[in-house]
UniProtKB/TrEMBL annotation:
Keyword set includes Transport: no
Domain FAD-binding PCMH-type: 77-251
GO molecular function, one term: oxidoreductase activity
Protein name: Berberine bridge enzyme-like 15
InterPro entries per record: BBE, FAD-bd_PCMH, FAD-bd_PCMH-like_sf, FAD-bd_PCMH_sub1, FAD-bd_PCMH_sub2, Oxid_FAD_bind_N
Organism expressing this protein natively: Ananas comosus
Keyword Disulfide bond on entry: no
Family recorded in the similarity comment: Belongs to the oxygen-dependent FAD-linked oxidoreductase family.
The gene coding this protein: LOC109721484
Residues in the signal sequence: 1-24
Cofactor annotation: FAD
TM helices/strands, residue ranges: none
Keyword terms of this UniProt record: FAD, Flavoprotein, Glycoprotein, Signal
């Protein structure tokens, strides 16, 4: 095997470690042994500086910061990884697991960096950050209407590749283009095609995963239990998913979109009440999202502004009669309706300005980074007008945030709760995301926004699902409960948060964890604990 060369980067790292302090000798020794381990277990690795980054490496900080979407986790006090690894193939992922375990370092895996609690980038124990930024290959097969997409690709990159090769194929996943494929699919993945085709995880056909034993497995070799678990159960609890084989879905050459803003004074309460009864029962080709924010009315006073924004898999002439018969109160006319290619609607729903190029979907870096907190709920019974009016009063107090209501029904009604780990299907009218964002650092800012989101969330307690109160894993929320900084928790203790995300599927996930990772190597503050029979 070729001997590792002392590149200028390696030499500079060694010198920095030697002279940084007298206590750095052990860091130097660990660095060399870690480097040697990676080289030994990655036989095709010729430039280790493309894989291994220490805090003295020039790329360490840029890589660490590049995918941190929530600036709450970018402060000097945020725990930093001992090393950052940027593998380019499954062999290097294998080496990353082998060497991290050998050196008793935990692993955190990052694809797009949108984890709401920052668990993909930080830990309270010595850890390695495996950043999948170099695993972004996408291969579209138009004959089988499938694609292989590596976990480090973003949804925008995936959508662009699909749209550049076909006008009549799509993939049912989320709205934000900078979200990483790996985390999104492993947590479920919902978007404007969910009522027609289900979740992103429902449309996964195969996967390549590196498990806790550093074995590289596909669906056949991993077995159906593990394949079930990573499609909605949070893959970071079970290993590192390198790539996914997904099923592409048909869409018309032209689809229709619209957005209708309505204030309280214009009847937003009545429309929100009616939406709850209508949106989940509409034809599955039609998806109408409701969005609520604090704004101003014509007199300059604070009010609630509701936006109803929709995607219809058909042309405008077909949509008008559906709306006229099922939701005439919304007042949609031909002037509101826009026909677009499906790929163009991705930018439309992301709020991109007219005139931006489709190539912009490949931009991995979110231009609107900020600080935010979020929570989630599921609603199974319509909220009364009286309760809606009370809700608006709570929203109007303090630092304002947003509510997103995403309708269910359609395909989500027909898929069993146990088909994947994501159980929130039949009987749910819609999902709520509570979201509050700010731009200035400071404990006071965060406290004010947390107070707003907690007051709204607490108000909603009697109006949402119960026993357990549901939550969506991709809107991760540590206030539901935590395994602690070391990631260890019993099954009984973890049920506090686990059943909110997974309901009865949590026990099956824990039993699978015991089989595939009995030592609980892949763990974090909300990882699945092993349950031994």
């Amino acid at each position: 095997m070729e001997r590792t060369k002392l590149t200028p980067l390696v030499v500079s790292t060694i010198l920095a470690l030697l002279f940084s302090s007298s206590s750095a000798t052990w860091e130097f020794v660990e660095y060399l042994t870690f480097l040697s381990c990676l080289t030994f277990h990655s036989p095709f690795l010729t430039n280790t500086h493309n894989l291994l980054h220490t805090k003295f490496s020039p790329l360490y900080k840029p890589i660490l910061q590049s995918s941190l979407q929530n600036l709450r986790f970018s402060s000097s006090s945020t725990p930093k990884p001992r090393y950052i690894l940027t593998p380019s193939n499954s062999g290097q992922v294998h080496a990353s697991v082998v060497c991290s375990r050998k050196h008793s370092l935990q692993i955190r895996v990052r694809s797009g960096g949108h984890d709401y609690e920052g668990l993909s980038s930080q830990a309270d124990v010595p850890f390695v950050l495996v950043d999948l930024v170099n695993l972004r290959r996408i291969e579209i097969d138009l004959e089988s209407n499938t694609a292989w997409v590596q976990s480090g690709a973003t949804l925008g990159e995936l959508y662009y590749e699909i749209g550049s090769k076909s006008r009549t194929l799509a993939f049912p996943a989320g709205v934000c283009a900078t979200i990483g494929v790996g985390g999104h699919l492993s947590g479920g993945g919902k978007g404007f095609l969910t009522r027609k085709y289900g979740l992103a995880a429902d449309n996964v056909l195969d996967a390549i995963v590196v498990n806790a034993r550093a074995q590289v497995l596909d669906r056949e070799s991993m077995g159906e239990d593990l394949f079930w678990a990573i499609r909605g159960g949070g893959a970071a609890s079970f290993g590192i998913v390198v790539a996914w084989k997904i099923k592409l879905v048909p869409v018309p050459p032209k689809v229709t979109v619209f957005t209708i803003p309505v204030t309280l004074e214009q009847g937003a309460t009545d429309l929100a009440y009616k939406w709850q009864h209508v949106a989940p029962k509409l034809p599955e080709d039609l998806y109408i999202r409701a969005f609520f924010r604090v704004g101003e009315n014509t007199k300059g006073s604070r009010t609630i502004v509701a936006l109803f924004t929709a995607l219809y898999l058909g042309n405008a002439d077909q949509l008008e009669p559906i709306l006229n018969s099922s939701f005439p109160e919304l007042g949609v006319s031909s002037e509101h309706l826009q026909e677009k290619r499906w790929i163009e609607t991705v930018q439309y729903f992301a709020g991109n300005k007219r005139g931006e190029k489709l190539e912009d979907l490949k931009n991995r870096y979110w231009a609107e980074k900020g600080y935010w907190v979020a929570k989630s709920d599921f609603v199974s019974e319509p909220i009364s007008k009286e309760s809606l009016r009370a809700l608006w009063e709570v929203m109007l107090k303090g630092e304002p945030g947003l509510l997103f209501w995403d309708p269910y029904g359609g395909k989500m009604e027909s898929v069993s709760e146990s088909e994947t780990p994501f159980p929130h299907r039949k009987g749910n009218l819609y999902n709520i995301q509570y979201y509050s964002k700010w731009q200035k650092a400071g404990d006071g800012e965060e406290k004010a926004h947390r107070e707003w989101i907690n007051s709204v969330y607490n108000f909603m307690t009697p109006l949402v699902t119960k026993n357990p109160r549901g939550a969506y894993l991709n809107y991760r929320d540590l206030s539901l409960g935590s395994n602690g900084g070391d990631g260890f928790a019993s099954f009984e203790d973890a049920k506090v948060w686990g059943e909110s995300y997974f309901k009865g599927n949590f026990k099956r996930l824990a039993r699978i964890k015991a089989k595939v990772d009995p030592e609980n190597y892949f763990r974090n503050e909300q990882s699945i604990p092993p349950l031994f029979d």
